[in-house]
Structure formats: C-alpha cells, structure tokens
Design a protein that fits this description.
- With 503 residues, the chain is α+β, with helices and mostly antiparallel strands.
- It folds into four domains: 18-135, no CATH class; 171-221, SH3 type barrels, CATH 2.30.30.60; 229-321, Alpha-Beta Plaits (2-Layer Sandwich), CATH 3.30.70; 351-481, Jelly Rolls.
- It has 13 helices and 18 strands.
- Strands 13, 14, 15, 16, 17 and 18 form a six-stranded antiparallel β-sheet that branches. A five-stranded antiparallel β-sheet has the order 6-5-4-3-7. Strands 8-10-9 form a three-stranded antiparallel β-sheet, with helices on one face.
C-alpha cells in the first residue's frame, strides 16, 4: 500500500511540475524563433504527456486490465503522438539546409531524412498493429510482396531514378552549390532528391535532370578537389606577326585578366597554319566557375586591345582588321591629325610647327580597354602619355594596402611623367575607366623639345611638381583616414573591454 501511495505522490507532484517546466521552456524559446523546437515541446506538453498521465492513472491506480480496450486505445493515441513528436524531433536534429542553425546536429541529404521519417513511422505503426491489436501482418506482407512486383514493373523508370538517387547520394560526386557539367550541359546544383537533380544553368534557367539520366553520364565537377578548371580559346593572327611575339602578347593579356590564375600559369600554343591566319590556342585556369562568362569576356576583350597596342593583325577571310599605328598606308594623314591635336594643347600651342611635326612623327598610338592597367606603381613608366580619347584613373596604395584614387583624367590630359625622370619609378597605377586611345612618346622625344624650348621645359617641370603634390596629398588624406579608423576601432575595443569587465 505504501508503494502505491509513493507512486501516487510522485505522480501528483511530478506531472504538474513537468508541465510547468515545459511551459517555461517554451515561453523562453518562442521569442528566439526556435519554431520547430517549440512545436516539438508543445506536442509533448499538450498531447503525449496528458495521454500518458491518463494511462498511468487507469493502469496503476484504477486497476484497468492491461488488455483493456480503453488502455489499448490510449496506448495507440500515445504512440501516434510519439510518431508526430518524433518526426518533429528528426527535423530538429537533422537538416537538409546549406547553413544549418545551432540546434541542428547533422546535415543530411533530403532523401535520407525522408527515408528515416518513413522508417520511424512504419516501425511504430507495425508495433501498434502487431503488439497492441494482434493483427497478423504476414498476409499483408505477402500481398505487398506480390503488389511490389507489379508496381516495380509499372514504375521501372521511377525506380531506376530512385536507385540512381541512392547511388548519387552514397557516392556524393557533387553537392548542392557545386558547378557540374555532363554532356553539353553546365549548371549549379540547387537541389538533389530521390528522383532528380535541379541545376541552375549559366543562362539562369532551372533544369531538372532525372537521376537515371545522370547515372549514365560522365560528370565533371568544377568544385571538387582544388576547384581549378582549365579553359581553352583559339584565335588567329596574321602571317606577318612573329609567333613568339604573339604568344607573349596573349600570355600577358591572360595574366592581366582578373580571375585567371597565375599558378598554374597560362600557356599559348601554335596550333595550325590556315588559309588566312596562324591559329593559336591559349589554355588558362580559373577557380571560380560561377564567373566563367565574365572571365571569358574580359580576357577576349583584352586580347583585342593588346593586339592593337602591339601592332598585331587579326585577319578574317572577307575583311582584315588593320592595326592603326603610325606605320599604316595613311601615315602622313595620321601624322598631320596628331600634329593638329598637339597644337591644340596649351603645352604645345606656342611651339614651332616644325617641332610639333617632328614630335607627331614619332608618336605611338596605343589602345586600351576598360579595366586595363596602363602604368603600374613601383615600375618605371614606359613613356609619356597624352590622352586622345577615353578616360583613366590614377591610384596610389595606402598603408593598409588599399588603392585610393588620386585623379581622374580624360581627353588632353597627361600621365606617365616619371618616364622623363631617369631612375624613378611610377608613384601611381593607371586603370582605364573608358576605352582609351593615347599618344605615347619616348623620353628622348620630350627631352629634345625641353632642350629646345625653355618655356616648354618650365611648363613640364611645373606639371611634374603639381602631380607629385597631388599624389602626396592623396597619401596624406589616406593616412589620416586610416589613423582615424584605427583610433575608432581602438576606442570601441576599450569600451567593449570595460563593458565586459563590468558585466
């Protein structure tokens, strides 16, 4: 009798206490947004535990027989509640999301989570039918066996996709977020389930591929291993252009392209001697396939401007792209145009026509595309540049390693002044912001003009001094900004430290 009273006391005190504790936990979790955990605890508090309490009262205190239909109904309700709560718990512990939250213990494929839920449901349902209600499941199993054969024949394709899905999940040749290729199709994996794989192509189209189709393909994963992927591109140049020089120009354009790796380095091969051109193939490597189209476009655009700058010709069967340089059949006309342009500039307007004509005769016309780096900080300027069209920004590197803009230049502006100062390296980097056409003069050409005209020499020297001051001001402004930022971070750190100590 004393044991029964002890059980009753534990039940009377323990059950309400358990319900109160669960209610308190739920009230604390709700503001934090833990919806799944709240639903799980609510299912226990509102259904499973109350049913369990009624069963304990009927079985332990009221003496209902174990095989009573009322107890079996209660046990069935309890186990159905356990199924519901268990499925919620599986959703808490296991996740298929790319970025699991703190309460998720394991990240699993969606198919595995579905299978675990089904097995959990079938296991408890089988126990309810066979143990509680003494249902003979052998006949049902036999019927299911015969039915499964019929279903298998009717759903061969679906089952093939299912098996292929299992194999893909076990083998894991790719995961969500990877870029893959099979056949002529390239895309990013956005979902993987028992039936199919969903890909987002480079054209932003959603492609659904049955697992059975993928299982029969060779799959290339651009994100496996070191993620390095090779690209190849063919282009033809004139027979008048030296292959070694062409290869050097193409390789330099590849190295200058953002996204193309320097290790492994790009390679250029002479492939064939065709009717209209010598064909070259360049092989380069990237590690960001998501931006492959931007990298391809940038590189091929740079080749065009590099060819124009270096006097290379890209021939075509019907027409030929001529490199516009001072060695073309229209040389005299072009020299005259350059002379007129120079004479319109304040720095050259007072010079004699003969001096301007000589300067125009030695001018080198060069072309640069958007994003091209014309001059580099820490490297001697290859020449003195006058902008005929387009725009460029000059940048300096601050103490933090970031680049700050000094000045934005456009038509009739000059840069590359350190070419006139032997032994000095460029203090700035010049990056094209609008397709650029420039006249480039070697140091000797400008030095000859300076020697023949004191006024021109004074103006050039004044220009150099003003540009140096502008660069120095940019450095000082950048240093002040970095110092202020560092002081602010230090003050914030001190405040955080004080707050931590007080806490």
């Amino acid at each position: 009798m004393s044991v029964l009273w002890l059980k009753a006391l534990i039940f009377i005190l323990g059950f309400p206490l358990l319900i109160v504790i669960l209610g308190e936990v739920i009230s604390r979790l709700e503001p934090r947004g833990n919806i799944r955990l709240v639903r799980f605890l609510n299912s226990l508090r509102s259904f499973v535990f109350p049913c369990l309490a009624i069963w304990l009262v009927m079985n332990q205190f009221l003496g209902f027989p174990h095989n009573s239909i009322f107890l079996r109904l209660l046990e069935t309700l309890i186990l159905l509640g356990v199924i519901f709560a268990g499925i919620l718990l599986l959703g808490i512990l296991l996740t298929t999301e790319q970025n699991p939250t703190s309460w998720h213990l394991f990240k699993v494929p969606r198919l595995f989570l579905q299978i675990i839920r089904i097995l959990f449901f079938l296991g408890i349902t089988t126990y309810i039918l066979s143990s509680l209600w003494q249902v003979d499941l052998s006949n049902i199993a036999a019927a299911l066996g015969v039915g499964s054969v019929v279903i298998a024949l009717a759903l061969q394709t679906t089952l093939s996709n299912l098996v292929s899905g299992f194999l893909l999940l076990f083998d894991s040749p790719f995961k969500v977020g990877d870029w893959i290729r099979f056949g002529d199709i390239e895309g990013q994996v956005v979902d993987l389930n028992w039936r199919s794989v969903r890909l987002r192509t480079l054209n932003r189209e959603l492609l659904i591929v049955p697992n059975g189709v993928l299982d029969q393909q060779n799959i290339f994963n651009y994100h496996s291993g070191d993620r390095v992927h090779g690209e190849r591109f063919k282009i033809g140049f004139s027979y008048d252009d030296s292959p070694n020089f062409v290869q050097a120009v193409i390789k330099s354009a590849a190295i200058a392209t953002k996204g193309i790796l320097s290790d492994p380095a790009p390679d250029v091969f002479t492939m064939s001697y065709d009717d209209f051109a010598i064909t070259y193939e360049v092989k380069y490597f990237i590690d960001d396939f998501q931006n492959v189209e931007e990298i391809r476009n940038d590189f091929r655009t740079r080749i065009f401007y590099a060819a124009k700058r270096n006097g290379l010709t890209i021939p075509f069967p019907i027409r030929t792209l001529q490199h516009v340089r001072i060695r073309t059949p229209q040389r005299e006309e072009r020299v005259q145009e350059i002379a007129i342009f120079l004479q319109s500039l304040p720095f050259f307007a007072f010079l004699e026509l003969e001096a301007i004509a000589k300067l125009a005769d030695v001018a080198i016309l060069q072309f640069y595309g958007l994003g091209d780096e014309v001059i580099s900080e820490g490297i001697p300027d290859p020449g003195f540049y006058i902008i005929e069209s387009g725009a460029i920004k000059l940048l300096v590197t601050d103490l933090s390693g970031s680049q700050q803009e000094v000045i934005h230049l456009s038509r009739e502006d000059f840069f590359g002044e350190t070419a006139l100062l032997p032994g000095e390296n460029s203090q700035v980097t010049g990056v094209v912001t609008q397709d650029l056409t420039v006249l480039v003069f070697e140091r000797e050409a400008i030095a000859t003009l300076m020697a023949g005209s004191a006024r021109f020499a004074r103006q050039i020297n004044q220009f150099i001094e003003e540009r140096k001051k502008r660069i120095e001001q940019a450095h000082q402004a950048s240093d002040r900004l970095n110092s202020a930022s560092s002081s602010s971070e230090l003050n914030n750190s001190k405040k955080s430290f004080k707050h931590t100590r007080l806490t």
